[in-house]
Amino acid sequence: MANKRIDFSCPMPEFDFNTITLEHGSGGQLMHRLLEDLIFKLFANKQLDQQHDGAILQLNGSVAFSTDSYVVSPIFFPGGNIGDLAINGTMNDIAMCGAIPKYISLGLIVEEGLQIDELWKVLESIYRVVKSYQIEIVTGDTKVVERGKGDKLFINTTGIGEVLPRAKIGIEQIREGDHVLVSGNIGSHGMAVMSVREGLEFKTSLQSDTQYIGDISAQLINTFGDKLRFMRDPTRGGLATVLNEITSKNNMSIELEDQLIPVLPQTRSACELLGLDPVYVANEGVFVAVVAHDIAETVLMMMRSFHKCADAAYIGKVTSNFPKKVIVKSGIGGKRVIPMLIGEQLPRIC
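User: That's the sequence. What structure does it adopt?
Assistant: Structure tokens below.
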């Protein structure tokens, strides 16, 4: 049932320079060559071939729309880089609206001094993702800023998708007794980035979970319709933030079972070393689903049939016992409140 991603690859063009300079953002010949050889040839399609500042698109029915900016440091980390992170992240935001992503804009803010081979690696990773899932990059923008002003590379992406006919997703759809599911192990992305930044070493490597999850969410929507109440990918602020966003907008509570929340051992070890709680750590390839209790087991089985959701788990339920609070029950019966994250726990992880 799970889709297999084809490993698209293409050779890097030859250039007579190795480093991005301010002249590559001037609008002149060097910028034209950079865009022509790196962007327009790599992502060629009918809309982008117009080389216009905008694009005319064909869409049917309701439209989902999302924009995001990515400033992760470092730009390369175990399991991914800022490029596939940006595309997967925007596609996932569209998917969590109950839609199929169709088009993306790509904005690059490049720091003077970035090596051309690093930029190529980022663009090639973007290429592999969009080709794998038949998404088109239809417009964008490139700027070059002075050395020291951009930390190598920032990316802005905006996505547009078509909402699935059976999608009826939102906090207002959640009912008491609904079950809370998570599609995989939490905290992997944030700790993978931090392990590189802090120079941490573990017996088992930490890998970012950055991946597209819209293929799974679309199948769930098409199968279960309005019994799939809510979906969200817990990025910055992690699982705890998403669940607190739910409870803050109604008089219900969410009660979790601590021992059921899936966390890889190496992620948990890294969190303990840095004094972090995995429920607050960012994810980039996991989603939370709130579903009607009578379909929870079937939904979970379907999720686990996808390789990328093999560790999907039931983690709790919606109740009215502790209005507007998220409660975690320990294995020995104790309870603690999980509030919204205060302050910045892990800067620059997406």
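Confidence is low (pLDDT under 50) at residues 1-5.
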